[in-house]
Design brief:
Blueprint (H helix, E strand, L loop, with lengths): L7 H4 L5 E4 L5 H10 L4 E3 L10 E4 L3 E3 L22 E5 L3 H10 L5 E5 L11 H13 L2 E4 L2 E9 L2 E8 L6 E5 L1 E4 L3 E3 L32 E3 L10 H15 L14 E3 L7 E5 L2 H6 L4 E7 L4 E7 L5 E7 L7 H8 L16 H19 L5
Parallel strand pairs: 1-2, 1-3, 3-13, 5-6, 5-11, 6-7
Antiparallel strand pairs: 4-12, 8-9, 9-10, 14-15, 15-18, 16-17, 17-18
Helix pairs in contact: 2-5
């Protein structure tokens, strides 16, 4: 459980930039702001005279259904041994990463998702690729199935599952049950109720394209926002926040372009950024698509057939997670679709960057009045 964060009113008087909370993005923005010559304070320390900017970077807490016992923690078995069986509830981004984590530690892992497929909101082809990669690693994936109850049974748990359209429930036993139904910002004790900052029904703060809330001078990033908690997304937010604190011009954050990434070695790595082809068509775009690679690893590019603008980049397979910067550059209209040259962690990364270029070019060739 995270420690309570200090009260907002105390912090506003602390100096040019006060970073509140130790959650995702806090260290990044403090480091970048300091590098830009901005005095940075954390916690309740008071520095300088007048009030400055304050950025809230809270920790995240898992969302638990009402029937989930508070005592059931996702850890090793009660006797300290590695678990034999694990059930992960929720097949979104965090659920897939949890399944990939546990399958390296337990011989039996089940991933339960209420929707038609895992990774809802991702490109369908990426989701199907990741599902196949999970199955190849030994993860049992159950879609169209909801967890409805959880109870302790001996040294493990029993979880009741309800399949869509099924006549009755089924029960599964496991040593560990892992909740992966999403995250919420832990802002208890911050004092947001004494500000004009607005939150949505899930508790995420509403901000403008510079990350400022409705309270002047109060900014938010990381787990405070309904955005991916990926390194690329956090780095982008940290740059914008540090630039605002330094009084420098900065490009606005285009939230829908921030990539979501499953960062793992091997064929389960994946990336989705921007619009899928289906999503683009629903918004009225005429779409041109290009794809490069093979069944093991591939990159797809979605473009506006009328203007040539890149609308989405999607990739799966080893090295896909290394494309976040290059995909963001494409979506923001930068000229080099390969991104900056980087030292890759494997030979797959430069190969995937080359495939991104090929997908970009093949979509260009399809672009035209009849695409």
């Amino acid at each position: 459980m995270s420690a309570a964060l200090p009260a907002f009113d105390t912090l506003r008087a602390a100096g040019p930039l006060l970073v509140v909370g130790g959650g995702p993005g806090a260290a990044e923005v403090a480091r970048m702001a300091a590098a830009m010559g901005v005095p940075v304070a954390t916690g309740v320390a008071v520095r300088g005279g007048g009030p400055g900017l304050c950025v809230l970077a809270p920790r995240a807490r898992p969302l638990l259904p009402a029937w989930w016992p508070a005592s059931q923690a996702p850890s090793a078995g009660s006797d300290g041994r590695a678990p034999e069986a694990v059930v992960v509830v929720g097949g979104g981004h965090s659920g897939v990463e949890a399944a990939l984590h546990w399958v390296m530690r337990a011989p039996r892992v089940m991933l339960v998702e209420a929707g038609d497929s895992i990774l809802p909101g991702w490109d369908d082809q990426v989701a199907a690729h990741v599902a196949s990669a999970l199955a190849a690693r030994g993860v049992t994936v159950l879609c169209r199935c909801r967890a409805v109850a959880l109870a302790a049974r001996g040294e493990g748990v029993e979880i009741r599952l309800r399949a869509r359209g099924a006549a009755g429930d089924r029960s599964e036993t496991a040593d560990v049950a892992v909740p992966a139904l999403g995250l919420r910002p832990d802002v208890a004790g911050v004092g947001l109720e004494r500000t004009r900052a607005l939150a949505d029904r899930l508790g995420f703060l509403q901000v403008d394209s510079r990350l400022e809330t409705a309270e002047p001078g109060l900014y938010a990033l990381g787990a405070a926002l309904a955005l991916p908690l990926t390194p690329a997304a956090l780095a982008r937010q940290a740059v914008v926040m540090a630039s605002c604190a330094a009084g420098l011009p900065t490009a606005p954050v285009r939230f829908h372009l921030l990539p979501r990434v499953i960062a793992v070695a091997g064929d389960a790595a994946a990336l989705t950024a921007g619009l899928t082809a289906a999503g683009a068509r629903e918004r009225g775009f005429r779409v041109a698509c290009g794809q490069a690679g093979d069944a093991r690893a591939w990159v797809a590019c979605v473009r506006d057939a009328d203007t040539g603008a890149v609308l989405g980049v999607h990739a799966a397979g080893e090295g896909a997670d290394a494309l976040a910067d290059a995909a963001t550059a494409l979506l923001e209209g930068l000229p080099d679709p390969s991104g900056r040259e980087q030292d890759g962690r494997s030979e797959a990364e430069p190969l995937m960057r080359n495939r991104l270029v090929a997908a970009f070019v093949s979509a260009t060739k399809e672009t035209g009045p009849d695409a």
